[in-house]
What we know:
The structure is a single chain. The chain is of the alpha/beta class. 34% of the residues lie in helices and 16% in strands. The termini are far apart.
Amino acid sequence: MVRTEPARIFAVARRTAALCLGLLAGLTMLAGARASTLEEMSFPSKALGRPLTVSVYRPDLPAPETGWPVLYLLHGRDANNRDWSSLASIKVTLDRLIKSGRINPMMVVMPSAGNSWYVDSADVKGPGNYETALLNELPTAFEKRFAPHCTRKSRAIAGISMGGFGALRFAFKRPDRFVAVASLSGAIWQNIPTAQTQTAWEGASGSYFKRIDQATVVGGPDLPPEGAHFGGAFGTPFDARRFNDANVFTLLARQIEAGSELPAIYLTVGDHDGLNFWRGSMALYETLMADKINIEFRVTDGDHTWSLWRKTIEDALEFVDSKFAPATAPPLVAVSPAMPSAASGEPAPKMAGGETVVK
């Protein structure tokens, strides 16, 4: 019988433990690296007459029984679907917030919409019918493929700058679609006065601030800049009546009059926004408060820049997540030999919700 010295046993055990720890660390790193997938893909669009490009964030985890909730995240002017990734590291942010438990896993869809202002404009030779493409076609195609059980309770929308305007437009036009909306430094203006819609709009003029007396200063109406700023989205020349009809404040007023249930609303803007978009956010806040509509409003330290939005998107994501319906546990799937497969030549069962159309 051969006896092994205690020192040798200890050395072997130590090497074995080190190997196990190394493998465990490698597996942990691999799991962390695959915490999510960020993929660019395209979906057909009859409204645009060409495919619509989107970036999609998906958790690499077993989906709950009801599927992941979906956030549609819109970009700003002179931007595209990649900005949230390249300028805000959105994948890293989502991974970190999910891992820490600050938010639950969700899918995030970031479409490319050019300088469309998220309206239909093909009839006036503008950028195209992006409202139809993004409000109707994209959710129908995307959710049929990735989130067939998605409903209002698990669908939200958010955006920055022009995208904040677009997110509010879509949420106020179809409040039955979204459980929550978040506008980050939204490009929001009040309606152009009726008397000024009869002639060519030259942009807001005069001082915004009005001094009532030596100690009292109030803000005036927050009106949009000159028409060229909108790049043909509201006609060329700029049509003030078309702008008013599509504007956030008009859509909101219609839903209030109809008694519609609005999505939960979150507004945030920088206190030193170089484009003065704090004015529009404050005007919308005052409008909602006047009608006793609950709203979360934040004025934070910063300008109209990504350095601010990289911070404020975190609070917006927490807000959206808090409004999603609680997800149920993922189903336990057992592989059965009797289950039809492609190799057997038998037809595979249809996925539930495969024919769902967003209405």
